[in-house]
Amino acid sequence: MEVRQWSPPDAPEGTPVTPSILSLTNNQVAEWGHPAAAERNRVAYMKLCIEGAPVVPVGSLDLKTLLGEEGFKRQQRRRAERMICKYLRHLREAFCADDNVRRVQDINNLRQIDWHFSMPACWTAEGIRTMRSAVEGAGYLDNDNAVYYCTEGIAAAIGVSYRLRADIARVGDQVLICDIGGATTDITTFAITAMHPSHNWQMSFRQVAHDSTADCANPFVEQQLLQHLRQSLGLALGSGEVARLALEAARTAKERFNGTDDPEVPLPLDEEYLRRHYNGECNDFDRRGQLFRYPAQVLRNSLDHVANHVMGHIIRRIRAHGANRVVMVGGLSCSPYLRGRIESHFENNPDVSQLLPVMYLPGLDPVTIISHGLTIKGSTLIHPMQYQSEWGYEIFYPFSQRLGTDLFDHRRRHVTAIRVLQGQDRVDVPAQGNVLFRLSIQRGRPVNPITIKPRKGPDYDEPVGSAFLAISFDCGLHAGESHDGTIRYFDLEASWRLLAGVHLELKWTFQVVAPAGRYPQDAGITHSVDHMTPRWA
């Protein structure tokens, strides 16, 4: 399958199309990506508004400056959800209205689309629900579309697997991926299990152990650099346009820093503002040239915490699960200084020095990473998410037996399909599975329905659904009968499959396994399992 990369037609070339920074005009999305940072009414670091992200004390951050005043107003969950929903709706509408997309589809109306979203591993179950609600509200389930989710670590792994070449990766290799983003860091490890014989970029892989998340202190880096700027100039730079310009100066210095030079960055503060508030005593500020020079030591002090913390996570994960390749992706991985610190950590640690050189891949944009991977149907992962359930599920079915000359016993037996043992909080649930059982029918009696009940330890919940099968005593599909012919036995297979849309569902189907073959039943049961959470939540 040919992989195509898409960006909104009005997005500047090379601009990430992610809600890291966006801007609003009359409550509408006005800019995509980097150009939005130039807008006063920008919304930045939306991940900081979602429960569980980042794994740092958000309360100690200067959120009004980091988020922008518009973003600061949207910290409450419902407001953050509406903001994300609005952004995603604009993105979906731009995609569906793009003439280039329609030409590729070669039809006037788009067919059903499989949409894939990635989320950071540090988000809690509540944070995941926020994202799901935003996706649903943005219309991604319209036209019978399907929605799938994975961690940002898995999304990065899919992108990396597509870009690896046969001369640097082999079947059996274990590759550690570290996605150092703006607000979160996700780490995952995968083992390469197969490669296409002629297209070696098409590979299959399996995840090794759970995703892990590191405290990405990027917001703290920017806050420390912003604080240095305020102290050096003797200015509050607390809100409005001056706060935005100061934050952009801090971000630019962080991205340009090579480890040795003192980077000069634009700081075009309004002259009237400077006349009123600036005392003119900062040697690092070129007022006429509108430039500010950041001392290298200040930048080193700010960035070293990120490098040390992330490398600590990487080394512990390698010791626990192994790796013979390391790949870094994400916006902060592009920092020349951070790359140098990472290389230094590897060189000076005997446990991991053999993993050099570290591989760095372009692609700041999770949307791009997903498009490189999940559009390759069947060559990577069809649905990489693993879910966990706090409830098990049992199937209750009718069973009749003869106890005496004229005495019959009619009861309901049960078989366990998904088991949660007493004392277990949750259990991994495969994406699909099946279980066999045998029911029996007495001549002349109606067939009672099959029922599915959730179970936790010794306790049962209310049934989630029932199904009447199209079988009877005389249907001819029985696998055996009692010696006097009054009871017939039927072998059945119950299959279940997780439907991972915005609302997670469990779909049960049934078929009779008869001597002459298998006979699928029209009756089935589908029910919500929103209590299940991704394995990484």
Folded structure, characterized:
- There is one protein chain.
- This protein is an alpha+beta fold and 537 residues long.
- Among the domains are: 131 residues, no CATH class; 84 residues; 148 residues, no CATH class.
- The protein is 28% helix and 29% strand.
- It has 11 helices and 27 strands.
- The strands form 7 sheets. Strands 6, 7, 8, 9, 13 and 14 form a 6-stranded mixed β-sheet that branches.
- Strand 6 and strand 7 form a beta hairpin.
- Helix 1 packs across helix 7.
- The protein is elongated and about 110 Å long.
- It starts with 20 loop residues before the first strand and ends with a strand.
- About 5% of the residues have low confidence.
Give a summary of the structure in a few sentences.
With 537 residues, this protein is an alpha+beta fold.
